[in-house]
Structures are given as C-alpha cells and as structure tokens.
Design brief:
heterodimer, A: about 250 residues, alpha/beta, 4-stranded antiparallel beta sheet, B: about 220 residues, mainly alpha, MetI-like fold, about 0% strand
Chain lengths: ~250, ~220
Amino acid sequence: MIRIDAIQKQFGDLVVLRDVNLKIEKGEVVALIGPSGSGKSTLLRCLNVLVPPDAGRIEIGNTRMVFGESRLQLKPKELAEFRRHTGMVFQHFNLFPHMTVLQNVMEGPVTAKKMNKQQAQELAMEQLEKVGMSIKANDYPSSLSGGQKQRIAIARALAMEPQVILFDEATSALDPELVGEVLSVMKELAAEGMTMIVVTHEMSFAREVANRVVFMRDGVVVEDGPAKQVIDHPKDERTKAFLSHFHANEH
Amino acid sequence: MYQWNFSWLWDNYDFLFSGLMVTILLSAAVVVAGLILGTVNALGTISKHKFFRIISISMIEVSRCTPVLVALIWIYYALPILIGVEISALTASFIALTLYGASFYAEIIRGGIQGVDPGQYEAGEAIGLMHGDILRRIILPQAIRKMLPSLVNQSVINLKNTSLVSVLAIPDLLYQGKLIALETFRPLEVYTVVALFYFALLFPLTMLVRHLESRNSVKH
C-alpha cells in the first residue's frame, strides 16, 4: 500500500538518505529505529513531503509523487492534497495554542477538506472520544499535560482519515510517567488495523506493538524484519551494536 | 513670576478642536494604510520569490532610512516635478507618513511571524493546508497577539509624527496652535495646551501597550 522507491535526500553536502526502498502493507505497524543522524526522521518527513526528497518515488494508496529533476517545482495544491492521505504526530505535539482542543481537531477537515462544520465536529468528537480526550474538547492546549496534548495531536491526525499515520518520536518529549497513556492509544490504533510508521526509541514498544522493525544507519536501511526477530536476534553487526545500548539499560 | 493667562482659549477652542480633528483623522488614515502596506511588505520580505523580497525590502529601507520630515518635503516639492502631477499637501503628508509608518510596521509584523514556532507551520502543512490558509488561520493569529504591543507603540509614534505636517501648512493641532499663538501673543499657554492635547490623546494608548504587554507575559 505504501511504496518508497529509491528515495534520496541531501542537505547541502550532508547526504541524509542514500537510497531507501520500503514496501509497507495495509495494517502494518513499522517501527523505524536507528542512531540519531541515521535519517529515520528525515525519511518520515519525506513521506508526507514536509521535506521534499531530491529523487525517488513515493506511493501511498493510489496517489503517487515523483521527485527529481524532471519535476523542478512541486505544485502546492498537489502537495497539500497528497499530505491529506497521511497523518503526522510530532515530537513536540505542535497543537495550535490559539484554538480549543475541538477546533484543533476540526481544523484539517474544515479548512483542508472543506467538510461542513457540523459533520466535522461529529468526526472530531469521535476521534477525541477514541483517545479519551472528549471531556477536554473546549479547553485550550496550554491547560493540558504533555500526554494529553499528544493524544489530541493523534486525534487531529486521525480526523483527516489518513491511510497511514506517521509518528515522529511521539513520546520523546514526554515526562516518563506520561509516556504510557500515549503508547496505549497507539497500541489501540495498531489493534484496530491502522497502518502506522513509528520513529521511536521505545524498544519495548517496538517489540510489543510493531509487526516489523526497520533499522537505519547512515541513510540506508540496514536491517528489516519481524519486530521480535530484529530486536532479539539482530543479524547485522551494526544493528547489534545499536541495540546493545538498550539491552544494557534494561537490566 | 510669569502670569499665566488662558482667556484666549474661550475664543479659539473651535479652532484648536478642528486642528485636533485633523490630527486624529490623519493619524487614523496613516495607521490603517500603514498597517495594510506594512503587512503586504512583511509578507514580501519573507516571500519565496526574490522579486517580492527585493521590492519589499527596498521600500522598507528607503522609507526607514529617510527622516520623515525630509520625505514629507521631498514628496511635496520634488516628486510633483519628477512625475509631472501636482500633489496636494494633504496627499503628500499622507504618503510620506504612511510609507514611514509602514516600514516599521512591516518589521514588527515580520518579526512576529518569524517568532511563531516553525512547528506550527509544519503542523498546518501536515493536515494538508495550503500556504495561505496556514498564514491566515495558524501563524497570523498567534503572531498578532505577540506583536500587538509593538504595533500600538509604533502607532503612538506615527501619531506624533503627524505634527510634522504643519510645515506644509496643513491645519493640524500644532499648526492651529501656531496661528493662535501668533494672534494672541500667548505662545507659552498655547503650546502648553497643544502639548496637553497630544498627551491626552497618547497616554491612553501607552497605557494600552502596558496592559497588552502584561497580558502577554502572563500567558507565556
């Protein structure tokens, strides 16, 4: 359902993605792991073109984007259209502070998809219900905890009815005691069959919830396989070296 | 000891009030037009297109780096010769003050927009909004809150700058005061009253700035 073909990205002289190829099926939960600077966050941002790749192809469902010299300028309208198929959850939540929780979740459906307000409100309330935040619908984000904010950010992504949700280190900015509530929302989504790509440092989450773990280093995919296998019995030396930090911490 | 004498005021206060009205109306026009031009230029300076950037930055820097009194006189006396169209004193004043005010507004607005966390823009992009919608619905509402105190402050300065138009014989508060002073031989009293009028006009505005600033500091 998602196809990433030969994606390359360079910032100045720094090559961040060399040649990344991935195929992800509907309903799969893929954990992207790797040391910082490995390109995993950039890959995620390429997927919804927050960062346009220099070359390659991305296919999500029936829509396809081709990057490279043949297409010098991406049309803003096409881009916006393309992004509506993906939901994105950011490390720092990025909720809109001047809008209520409900308005945050309604913004995409109403302004981007031109849904009528009544319908959008129902949809938004449904999503807030799902993440357990419907009682806070009329509050402003500034009065909420990090965990609550992130759950609302997830509801905001869900309200776009995306084909895939991308999580960019969604729990890294949270106090340890708030990580659990966000992870459990993510687990529920996974159980419902939502396709998810998760950049994470939470190995236990990756092991339990993800079907598949993709280990990246220096802009390439080094190892890709079933979650438990990659985490418990990595084949590649670089994966072993990276995971050894985490195993050491567990004991 | 100087003997203050304000008896002239009763015969001349209509005159003074008409000056006050000119000052208020001209200020209002300059503030509104300046804010519009300032917003356009602020967006120009952060545009992706080099062409817009060059135009906006040139406009801002030329008006910002010319004393407003010089601009006033130049637009009134020199510009008509260059373009072959006569410009009334009021039009010249309006243009000069607007350009000057707009250049400072533009910098305040640009700073306000760039002061909003870039993650806000990304979040807007991520839910499929177009550039214009992101600015209008996400960036500007947050930026305006932050820049409001500075905008009001700049408006205070713009209002004071209108007193310069008296050099072009526009009957504003200061000009009317000058005429009354010449007629009544009471410059000390007249200019004191003129100053008090300006103060009465501006003091509430500076109080508003203080209020807005304290509100912002509580929120953030």
